[in-house]
Amino acid sequence: METSLERIKQTITDLSKFNSSELPGISRFSYSRDDLKARKYLMDICTGLGLAVRVDAVGNIFARYEGSEPELEPVVSGSHIDSVKSGGMFDGIVGSVGALECARVMKENGYIPKRPFEVVFYAEEEGSNFQVPVMGSKILTGKLGIDDLKKMKTLDGETAYDTIKKAGFEPDKIPEDVIPEGRIKAALELHIEQSVRLDLEKHTIGIIEGIAGCQWYRVTFKGKQNHAGATPMHLRQDPMCAASECISKVKDMAKETSPTAVATVGFIEAKPNIPNAIPAEVSFTVDIRDIKNESMDEIAEKLVAEAENAAKANGCTVECECGATSKAIEIRDYMKETMKEEADKLGLDYIFMPSGAVHDSNYMAEITDVGMIFVPSIDGRSHVPEEKTDFEHIKLGADLLLNTILRLTAE
User: Fold this and answer.
1) For residue 51, how far is the Cα from the chain centroid?
2) Cβ atoms of residues 135 and 59 within 8 Å
């Protein structure tokens, strides 16, 4: 069995039309008019295939292809269909269409798997509405509940609970839809890389060996605000100097700790932020990621130590606060080996690599074994209108996804 390049291309192109924004690229937020149209388009295809479609309390869609032994735990595969503001047409969509294509191929070949196979379209992955990413999978795995939705708000002040209800869903039924551990055999996700490695190194497939966790720190140095011209250098308590000394060490903290670790300073704020005064306070964030939890902990320890040294050297105080965190996910050996064996059978050029971005698979890993397949992003671009992946590569990724699903549903 083999996936259809033309069908994949047509379905992705069709989905890109559900976008009424005048901004460049794709802006399709969950629960918007265009999102509801895209949902209907996909559900119509699924019902046309004879799949049993169900939609949960917040809009996660499951389409079940029944197996010969329906009592067995299903294998699920899919991704999201929402986008960031002015995003591209491939992020999330490749995994959603890839999973759908696997069901189409099974149907046209009259193939009945032993285990059920379920296509899933996760809701609100990007966090564009409520600034809470991967909301749909967090709700599926019990990480968010009704009370959380009543606290989460859009930029206009509407709660997630009200937004979801207005879109026609039933958030009060969330407890009924939480999936307990062991209910699913495995969850697979095909995705664009969203970075440059596969394209730069000319590889077709990335078999994910681990999904990076994340630790966010806010580092705040406090000194003494004073005149920029009249204060001698040796009498200054300058938090900007302390911050710059600490920031300059961040890249080395990651490089020296783990070959797969990254650390990023993406936000910095000075108070009062005027050109002719030594600031009173400087804050910045450090985003630490790796596929090994112990490496992230080690980098965090180095960050705190360097911050304290910089503060002492510049007569300042410092606070290091840990904000959002997520655990690193290690892919099970059998899953990686299954994908490797199927990639070898297909003659694919592949590498083992980490995923630096957070995906729905991060949270599905709380309740089942997960596997991810990456295909190249041209020039490493993603979350931009210029996001692009070769359709031939998407087809090859979908072929590997199909063969992996066939293996796992036969067990």
Assistant:
1) 27
2) no
The Cα 313–Cα 96 span in angstroms is: 53
What CATH class does 5-211+328-409 carry?
alpha beta
**Domain 213-326 fold:** Alpha-Beta Plaits (3.30.70)
**Taking a C-beta distance cutoff of 8 angstroms, is the pair 119, 189 a contact?**
no
**Whats the size of the chain, residue-wise?**
411
Q: Are 283 and 318 in contact (CB under 8 A)?
A: no
> In sequence order, what are the beta bridge partners of 277?
227
Q: Provide the residue ranges of all domains of the chain, joining segments of one domain with +.
A: 5-211+328-409, 213-326
Alpha-carbon span 374 to 393, nearest angstrom: 10
Encode pLDDT of 331-376 as tens digits: 999 999 999 999 999 999 999 999 988 899 999 999 999 999 999 9
Which value, in Å, is the radius of gyration of the alpha carbons in the chain? 23
Q: What is the pLDDT of residues 376-402, one digit of tens each?
A: 999 999 999 999 999 999 999 999 999
